[in-house]
Amino acid sequence: MSGLMKGVLYMDINTQVSESTCNLALLIKAKRIAYKAHEGQTDMSGMPYIEHPLVVSYRCGSIDSKIVGMLHDVIEDTDVSYDDLRAEGFPEHIIEAVRCVTKEDGWDEESYFTRIKANPIAREVKINDLMHNLDEYRVVTPTRHLIEKRVKYRRELAFLQGYSDTL
Question: Where does the sequence pass through the membrane (predicted)?
Fold first, then answer.
C-alpha cells in the first residue's frame, strides 16, 4: 500500500471514529433530554413514559435513527422546542427528522405520513413507534378505543412499509 493510500485510509478511519464518537455523544444527549422531558409522564398502562422512546430508539438501526427515536415525542408532548435541540448541538437533518414525526397544530394525516415516508430516518423511527404502540403486552385490558387505534396503527404501518398506497 502506498504512503498516500495509507494516509487516506488513516484519515478515513479517523473520520469514521470521530463521526461515531460525535453521534454517540448526541445519542447520550438525546437520552438525557428525553428522560428530563418525559419525567413524571406515564403511558396508558401506567408505566413510565420514557420506556416508549427507549424501546423505539433501541429498535432503530442507525445512530441517527436511534437519536430521533429518543426525541420523537419531546416536541409534541413536552416543552422542548426545535430551538432547544439546535442549542444542544443537534444537526439539522436530525431536527428535520424529529419535525417529520411531530404532529403539529393543524396537521393532517395524509401530509404527515407522506412527509414521514419521504424521510428515511423519520420513516424508520415511525415504523418502530407504531410497532411498539401495537405491542399487546403494553396494555392488560384493551378498550374499544385502543382496539380502534390499533387498526389505525396497522393501516399507517402498511402505508409506511409500502404495502398500501393509501391510509
Answer: none
CB 160 within 8 A of CB 154: no
Number of domains into which the chain is organized: 1
Q: Is residue 167 part of a domain?
A: no
Alpha carbons within 13 angstroms on the beta-carbon side of residue 141 total 0
CATH number, residue 45: 1.10.3210.10
Write down the number of H helices and E strands in the chain.
9, 0
Residue type, 40: G
165 domain-assigned: no
Q: Are 90 and 72 in contact (CB under 8 A)?
A: no
